[in-house]
């Protein structure tokens, strides 16, 4: 390759990295208002923006069991946004799920969690969206849910059954740090919206730590949202408070790295939280007991690394790992740092549901933006290089190497995710440049 062409390709690659992401990445101001900080904690921009779109202008397509819906414009435009909303209107939408015109919002808007936002924080958020967010005139898109399933009146009954509309109440049995963490996790951070399993009517099975199903992990959109409870193998049981803080701050620690929708949370929210808030979240999460019935059997074994180095492993998947994966994750499975995570003892690898492992091998990872800089390395997609059986073999091998003891992945598991997921636009561009 001639040097000028190489330089040109590098320039194109850099521009793609800087211009593309799964959603808008909101730059941090040096003097953010309280409302701006709270909007970051709530990660409003991730859902109310589209790739390369203007922040908070809406239009993001979201799949639901009933059909596709689109996030709305929440800029202060009076015609297409929320510029005509009073504080009471804003409150009703954010904490109760009812728009100004009276139509009920689908709970893709996490108002069951936002119901816990305090009055003062809600007022600060309102002030931010009315005065600090740039006005964008952009019409909202109608949902793609067909009649009669698009009727919204049943949501009134759903809300009565599943939404506790009271703001967060301080738990007297815990200190201020724990309560701050609980408030952020349960309310603004709406962690349960992804990390708590859903019932038959798509409700979160639990809304706080009083139920062991809260934050016990869930599967959505082809990803497994991790167990955030005290399970040693599949949860945060082996993580210290400092390691949780490092994950929120850096997007990676010695156990795991951000992936899937959590990349948006990291890019726009968790890294910008104050150290005291990151610590409070860690304190709260470490207080959660393990989900019942979990088996904690992981102990690291160096036998896998030794066998790989000798080249005497013939088990399906081992050869693919040696040639395609070891350069980033290491023969020892412990990763190479700088965002190249450990696979040994990784709770996402040990999860009962292998969806995230399969999805990452198939489609790769989107970019992580840390302190305004896109990451140097990321998981490459192998959708085009490996067939379903090869991916099943290497995923099974990873889940059963270095002392990992997780279930096998089948060819059918991979085929199902291949059919229902796609690489990001960014990953497609990168593959074409190879």
UniProtKB/TrEMBL annotation:
Binds 3 heme c groups covalently per subunit. Coiled coil: none annotated. This is Gluconate 2-dehydrogenase cytochrome c subunit. Heme c 2 binds at residues 191, 194-195. The keyword Metal-binding applies. Heme c 3 binds at residues 325, 328-329. Gene3D superfamilies: Cytochrome c-like domain. It is an enzyme of class 1 (oxidoreductase). Residues 1-27 form the signal peptide. InterPro entries: Cyt_c-like_dom (IPR009056), Cyt_c-like_dom_sf (IPR036909), Cytochrome_c-type_DH (IPR051459), Membr-bd_ADH_cyt_c (IPR014353). SUPFAM superfamilies: Cytochrome c (SSF46626). Keywords: Cell membrane, Heme, Iron, Membrane, Metal-binding, Oxidoreductase, Repeat, Signal. The lineage of its organism: Bacteria, Pseudomonadati, Pseudomonadota, Betaproteobacteria, Burkholderiales. PROSITE patterns: CYTC. Its cofactor is heme c. GO terms for molecular function: electron transfer activity; gluconate 2-dehydrogenase (acceptor) activity; heme binding; iron ion binding. Heme c 1 binds at residues 44, 47-48. It is found in: Cell membrane. GO terms for cellular component: plasma membrane. Its EC number is 1.1.99.3. The keyword Nucleus does not apply. Pfam families: Cytochrom_C. Its main location: membrane. Residues 30-133, 176-289, 312-402 form the Cytochrome c domain.
């Amino acid at each position: 390759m001639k040097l000028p062409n190489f330089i040109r390709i590098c320039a194109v690659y850099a521009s793609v990295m800087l211009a593309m992401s799964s959603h808008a990445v909101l730059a941090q101001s040096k003097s953010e208002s309280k409302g701006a900080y709270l909007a970051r904690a709530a990660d409003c921009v991730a859902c109310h923006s589209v790739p390369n779109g203007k922040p908070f202008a809406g239009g993001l397509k979201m799949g639901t069991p009933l059909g596709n819906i689109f996030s709305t414009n929440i800029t202060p435009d009076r015609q297409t946004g929320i510029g005509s909303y009073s504080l009471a209107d804003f409150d009703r939408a954010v904490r109760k799920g009812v728009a100004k015109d009276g139509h009920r919002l689908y709970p893709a808007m996490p108002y069951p969690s936002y119901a816990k936002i305090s009055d003062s924080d809600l007022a600060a958020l309102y002030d931010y969206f009315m005065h600090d967010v740039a006005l964008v005139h952009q019409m909202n898109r109608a949902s793609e849910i067909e009649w009669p399933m698009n009727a919204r009146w049943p949501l009134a009954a759903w809300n009565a059954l599943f939404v506790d509309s009271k703001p967060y109440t301080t738990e007297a049995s815990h200190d201020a740090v724990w309560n701050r963490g609980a408030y952020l996790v349960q309310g603004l951070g709406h962690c349960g919206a992804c990390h708590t399993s859903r019932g038959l009517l798509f409700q979160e099975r639990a809304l706080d730590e009083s139920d062991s199903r809260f934050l016990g992990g869930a599967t959505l959109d082809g990803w497994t949202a991790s167990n955030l409870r005290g399970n040693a193998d599949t949860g945060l049981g082996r993580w210290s408070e400092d390691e949780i803080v490092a994950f929120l701050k850096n997007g990676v620690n010695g156990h795991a790295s951000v992936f899937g929708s959590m990349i948006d949370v990291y890019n726009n929210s968790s890294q910008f939280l104050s150290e005291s808030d990151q610590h409070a979240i860690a304190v709260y999460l470490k207080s959660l007991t393990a989900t019942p019935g979990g088996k904690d059997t992981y102990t690291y074994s160096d036998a896998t690394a030794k066998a790989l180095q000798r080249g005497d492993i013939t088990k399906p998947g081992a050869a693919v790992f040696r040639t395609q994966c070891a350069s980033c994750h290491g023969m020892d499975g412990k990763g190479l740092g700088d965002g190249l995570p450990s696979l040994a003892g990784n709770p996402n690898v040990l999860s009962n549901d292998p969806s995230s492992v399969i999805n990452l091998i198939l489609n790769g990872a989107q970019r992580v933006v840390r302190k305004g800089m896109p990451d140097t390395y990321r998981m490459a997609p192998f959708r085009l290089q490996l067939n379903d059986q090869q991916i099943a073999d290497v995923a099974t091998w990873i889940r059963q190497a270095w002392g990992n003891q997780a279930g096998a992945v089948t060819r059918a598991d991979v085929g199902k995710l291949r059919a229902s997921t796609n690489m990001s636009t960014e990953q497609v561009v990168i593959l074409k440049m190879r």
